Amino acid sequence: MRLVVLGGGESGVGTAILGKKKGYDVFVSDFGKIKESYKEVLIINKIDWEEEQHTEDLILNADVVMKSPGIPDKSPIIKKLVAAGVKVISEIEFAKPFTEALTIGITGSNGKTTTTMLTHHLLKSAGLNVGLGGNIGKSFAWQVAENKYDAYVLELSSFQLDGIIDYRPDIAIITNISPDHLDRYEYKYENYINSKFRITMNQTESDYLIYDADDEASTEWLKNNKTKAKLIPFSLTKTFDEGASINNNKMEIKINQEEFTMETEHIALEGKHNMKNAMAASSVAKLMQIRNATIRESLSNFQGVEHRLEKVLKIQNVQYINDSKATNVNATFFALDSMNVPTVWIVGGVDKGNDYNELMSLVREKVKAIICLGIDNRKIIDAFGAVVDIMVEVNNMNDAVKTAQRLTEKGDAVLLSPACASFDLFENYEDRGKQFKQAVHNL
Predict the structure, then answer these.
(1) Exposed (0-12), middle (13-18) or buried (19+): which is 44, by Cβ within 10 Å?
(2) Based on the domain organization, do 277 and 349 belong to the same domain?
(3) Annotated binding site for ATP
């Protein structure tokens, strides 16, 4: 069997290693450059590869192709493979048949990384032999090749879900759905929503789907479509016979005749959106029959995720906050919503079709100045020019942070929450967040 892997990144190299171990004839092809560290792995494992090209003769003869999430379906090589009738799948789809482990699949426009890390933290703290993969850390396929975990917590993007055929998580979570990546979905929101719900398409009556009952896109989809999975809702305002809710500053979860309660003030993560992430993760813990005391302890000591509302430093009584992971408007909405002091907001980057109107009331209420950090800031200036007194344009992180310092007074906050992708000025959102933290430390 010939396995061709398109993309020589984390998921590609992981898939190649697993494929080789399972006896496939493996070839890795990357249209860009492959990182030196990954090249070394391929060479040590005697796996053939190429970079900066796709040699069609070596690709179109595949029995199965694993494509990296970053490659769009409309790229020429994918179109040719589909026309030739070759199966094109994602890493998760390829790797799952090679492990007996239970999988918890987590998707959503926002909150999926925090929910994935928190779920993994809860299960690991309870002593379970559990791996963490998908969009985070070491690739799922690589771990299946080298480790023996009983369960995996997987962060799944819509792009990974587009490439599944038979994969089904034992427990699925959809944190929420808001417009994102519409450039990959013909600018049709319903295509993107359907893509997220692929997570439940193969689930059976013995599986679970945990979802946000306050989220319009999710509740609409569930009204109009069927899933066999048992539904576990969570909500900040509604209560359920079976599900998770917040009542008088208490988180309450009822699942399989069992109950869990915890005062929200003892939960380490702050903000309404994080209460939802905590409800989703704790619902998994209850389904996995973890003791209430263990869940409480884990929720109170969880450290959070880098680049997500991460408190960097307080300088002259001004708090600097790194929310570089906010690459869409909905994520920035949560960030601004959690601010309770006058805020200098650093925003901008590559816009994925953003509508800034939904931030308007929060900006009026909380933002004293806006610093536009991007190559093209027109849309942000048009949206907020009349709402905020001070708007400054900068094109590097040092200038952004120094300008922010000049515009603050004691008791204010500086929030990097870009609402955009980072590719105009940075390698990725991590690079953007690290540069912000470095610039703050240099003040």
Answers:
(1) exposed
(2) no
(3) 108-114
